[in-house]
Structure formats: structure tokens, C-alpha cells
Write a structure and sequence with these properties.
Length: about 140
């Protein structure tokens, strides 16, 4: 403020009547030392930027935590689905036995079914997409 308008100093000195009741008259004012104060606006702007950075980091951490939680939920759903598949596969031999007992299929139909199943599993193991072989159970999971 003083550097923008140096008259303010001389007007303030003259208004305070420092030369009253003296034999001297103030002709000029020499400024010997200028003490630059703190730039409040810049400090407030820097503090605001730092606060905004902290808020952005906190939000990003929250989104990361949500993503990790969702990933864990997906792993749980995968395990639930695998459990449902295992339960369904366990009922297949019972259904085949009931069909054999009831006469809906004969022994030759059963052997043809086993042959088709074995052929499918062989093709899947060659292709690397086996659903019953070792590749489905040895999938690596990321460590948390």
C-alpha cells in the first residue's frame, strides 16, 4: 500500500503535526528502510492449494479403497459360483443313476455320454481352457 502511494506517508506525518512547537519544518521524508511484510494473499492461496490437494488425495484413497472392496466382493462371488457349479456337478451322477434305473437311458447311452465328456475334457486341456482340470484350480490371486 505504501509503495503504491508514497504520499500516504507524508500526509500521515503532516497530519500528526510532528513539527508543531519545534524550530524545524518538515521539508521532505527519506525512507531509510523498507520492511516487506508477509503476502497474506499468496499465503492464503498456497494454503488453499495444499488443502485442495489433501482433499483430492483423500477422495482418491477412498475410491481406491472402494475398488479394493469391490474386487474382494467379486472374488467372493466367483467362489460362490464355483461352489454352485460343484453342487450342480454332484447331482449329475444321481440323475444319471435315476435315468438308468427308470429306463430313460441304457448302458450304451451312458458310455456314449462318458466318451463325449472325456473327449471334451481332452480338447479343453489341449486348448488350455479346462474347467475341471488343474488349470482352473491353480489360478493365481493377487496378494493383499
Amino acid at each position: 500500500m505504501v509503495l503504491e502511494n508514497p504520499d500516504v506517508i507524508s500526509k500521515a506525518v503532516l497530519a500528526s503535526r510532528l513539527d508543531d512547537q519545534t524550530a524545524f519544518e518538515i521539508v521532505s521524508i527519506d525512507i531509510a528502510d523498507i520492511d516487506v511484510g508477509e503476502n497474506i494473499g499468496a499465503r492464503l492461496q498456497a494454503d488453499r492449494a495444499e488443502a485442495d490437494t489433501r482433499v483430492a488425495r483423500a477422495r482418491a484413497e477412498g475410491r481406491r479403497a472402494e475398488a479394493v472392496a469391490m474386487e474382494q466382493e467379486m472374488f467372493a462371488k466367483i467362489e460362490e459360483s464355483r461352489a454352485a457349479v460343484v453342487a450342480s456337478e454332484a447331482s449329475v451322477p444321481i440323475a444319471i443313476a435315476d435315468a438308468l434305473k427308470g429306463g430313460q437311458i441304457n448302458v450304451m447311452d451312458y458310455y456314449k455320454l462318458k466318451n463325449i465328456t472325456a473327449d471334451t475334457e481332452m480338447r479343453q486341456s489341449i486348448a488350455g481352457t479346462s474347467t475341471t482340470g488343474p488349470s482352473s484350480t491353480s489360478q493365481a490371486r493377487p496378494a493383499n
